[in-house]
Each structure stands twice: as C-alpha cells, then as structure tokens.
Amino acid sequence: MTLRIDTSIGGRVVTLRVSGRIRAGDLDDVRKESERPGGGTVLDLDQVTLVDVDVVRFLKGAEREGVALRNCPPFIREWIARE
C-alpha cells in the first residue's frame, strides 16, 4: 500500500490518519497537511507499515514541536527513541 492521508478536523485539532508506507519523498505531503493554522495536530500512525530514517527523524522533530503521535507502532517508537 502506498501512502494515504485522511484528514479530519475536530474543533481546533487536525487529525491526520496516515496509512501505508511513508518514505522521505512523501514528507512534503505530510508536512503540508500537518501545518494547517489554528490548532494542534495529531498524526494517527496506526495503519503505517513502513518508514525510513528520514521519516523517523521528521516524526521525532514533529513530536518535539508539539505534534501528537497517536497509535504509534512500537517499531517506530523504538526507532524514534534511538535517533
């Protein structure tokens, strides 16, 4: 499965439900969707099956900047911790 992003807005929070594989080349799309003005952002990663090191670094930085990572698969969480 390639990358799919479903966006939902609830109040001041934008939730991006990300599915499939996320690669470095997909990060512009993820950034674009996550940088909506006016509220917080949640990345729901429950359906993510594969990432590369650039994506892990992006997720670590995004989380540091206040983006919530929901349903982050254990393999991604572990990789973030090691970076």
Describe the overall structure.
With 83 residues, this protein is of the alpha/beta class. It has a single domain (4-82), classed as STAS domain (Transcription Regulator spoIIAA). It has 3 helices and 4 strands, in the order ββαβαβα. The protein has helices spanning 27-34, 53-64, 74-82, and strands at residues 4-10, 13-22, 40-51, 68-70. Strands 1-2-3-4 form a 4-stranded mixed beta sheet. Helix 2 crosses helix 3 (74-82). It is globular and about 30 Å long. The termini are far apart.
How are the elements arranged and paired?
Elements (H helix, E strand, L loop, with lengths): L3 E7 L2 E10 L4 H8 L5 E12 L1 H12 L3 E3 L3 H9 L1
Parallel strand pairs: 2-3, 3-4
Antiparallel strand pairs: 1-2
Helix pairs in contact: 2-3
How is this structure best summarized?
By secondary structure, this protein is an alpha/beta fold.
Task: Pick out its properties.
83 residues, alpha/beta, Transcription Regulator spoIIAA, 3 helices, globular
- Class based on secondary structure composition and strand pairing: alpha/beta
**CATH 4th-level superfamily:** STAS domain
Indicate the CATH topology: Transcription Regulator spoIIAA
Summarize the main sheet.
Answer: 4 strands, mixed
Number of strands: 4
> What topology, given as strand order, has the largest sheet?
1-2-3-4
Low-confidence stretches: none
CATH C-level name: Alpha Beta
Radius of gyration, rounded? 12 Å
| Strand percent estimate | 35-45%
Number of helices: 3
Mean pLDDT: 91
CATH architecture: 2-Layer Sandwich
